[in-house]
TrEMBL record:
Belongs to the ribulose-phosphate 3-epimerase family. The gene is rpe. Keywords: Carbohydrate metabolism, Cobalt, Isomerase, Manganese, Metal-binding, Zinc. This is Ribulose-phosphate 3-epimerase. A divalent metal cation binds at residues 37, 39, 70, 176. Catalyzes the reversible epimerization of D-ribulose 5-phosphate to D-xylulose 5-phosphate.
Length: 229
C-alpha cells in the first residue's frame, strides 16, 4: 500500500447483500471502488453484530485492492492476529475500545497491517494527538457506530483540527457514516481523503445490476473533488 492523499472511495459492505459478499466486493471494485470497507461489530462495543475474521478471510480472495477492516469490538488486542491473517491491509481500532490504544496500534503494525484509530463523534481530536507516529489512518466517525444508513453528523471542525495536527505525516483521514453526494464535499474540503459510504453506494444496484454502484461512486467522488455531475 503506497501513501497518497487523493480522494479514495471505500464502499462499506455493511450495505451489501450479506448472502453474496464475494460477488458484491468484485462488483464494487469493477465499478470503481478504491478500498473495500469491512465493518466488524461485536454486540458489546456497539449494539449490533455483523461478522468476524472468518468472513474477512472468505472475502479476501474477492478483493484485489485494499481491505479496510473497521473493528467495532472491545477488547481488540486478542483478535489482531486473526484479522491480519485474514488479509486485512488496514485494521482500525476505536480509541474508546480500551485503555491501551497506543499498544494496540503498535500490535497492529507488528502483525503486518496498517494501523487505524477511530474516534466516535463525542471524542475530541486531541485523543489522537500522541498517537500520530504509530498510526497510518485516523477515522472520524460521522455517525454513532453500529448501524449503516444513519444521518450524517457534521464533524468538519474536528477534521480540520486533525488535518493541521497531522501536518506532513503520511496519515490518512477517513470519514465514516452518512457520506453521500451532499456531505462528501464538506468532509473533503476539511481535509479527508478516504470516504466510506455504504448505503449511498449500494443504493439502486445489485450484483446482477451493478451499474448504479458505479454511478453512485462517481457522483460521490465528483462531489468530493469539487466537480459536480
Ligand atoms: O462503521 C459503520 C457504522 O458503524 C459503517 O461503515 C457506516 O455506517 C457506513 O454506512 P453508511 O454510509 O450507510 O452510513
Ligand atoms: Fe465503518
Amino acid at each position: 500500500m503506497t501513501f497518497d492523499r487523493s480522494i479514495k472511495i471505500a464502499p462499506s459492505i455493511l450495505a451489501a447483500d450479506f448472502a453474496n459478499f464475494g460477488a458484491e466486493c468484485e462488483a464494487i471494485e469493477t465499478q470503481g471502488a478504491d478500498w473495500v470497507h469491512v465493518d466488524v461489530m461485536d454486540g458489546h462495543f456497539v449494539p449490533n453484530i455483523s461478522f468476524g475474521p472468518t468472513t474477512c478471510a472468505a472475502i479476501r480472495p474477492h478483493i484485489k485492492g485494499v481491505m479496510d477492516v473497521h473493528l467495532m469490538i472491545a477488547p481488540v488486542d486478542p483478535y489482531i492476529d486473526a484479522f491480519a491473517k485474514a488479509g486485512a491491509d488496514v485494521i482500525t481500532a476505536h480509541v474508546e475500545a480500551g485503555p491501551h490504544i497506543h499498544r494496540t496500534l503498535q500490535a497492529i503494525r507488528g502483525a503486518g497491517a496498517k494501523a487505524g484509530v477511530a474516534l466516535n463523534p463525542g471524542t475530541p481530536a486531541a485523543a489522537v494527538e500522541h498517537l500520530l507516529d504509530v498510526a497510518d489512518l485516523v477515522c472520524v466517525m460521522t455517525v454513532n457506530p453500529g448501524f449503516g444508513g444513519q444521518k450524517f453528523i457534521d464533524m468538519s471542525d474536528k477534521i480540520r483540527t486533525l488535518r493541521a495536527m497531522i501536518g506532513d505525516r503520511p496519515v490518512h483521514i477517513e470519514i465514516d457514516g452518512g457520506v453521500d453526494v451532499n456531505t462528501a464535499s464538506s468532509v473533503a474540503q476539511a481535509g479527508a481523503d478516504v470516504l466510506v459510504a455504504g448505503s449511498a453506494v449500494f443504493r439502486g444496484g445489485s450484483v446482477s445490476n451493478p451499474a448504479p454502484y458505479g454511478e453512485n461512486i462517481r457522483a460521490i467522488r465528483a462531489a468530493a473533488e469539487g466537480v459536480y455531475v
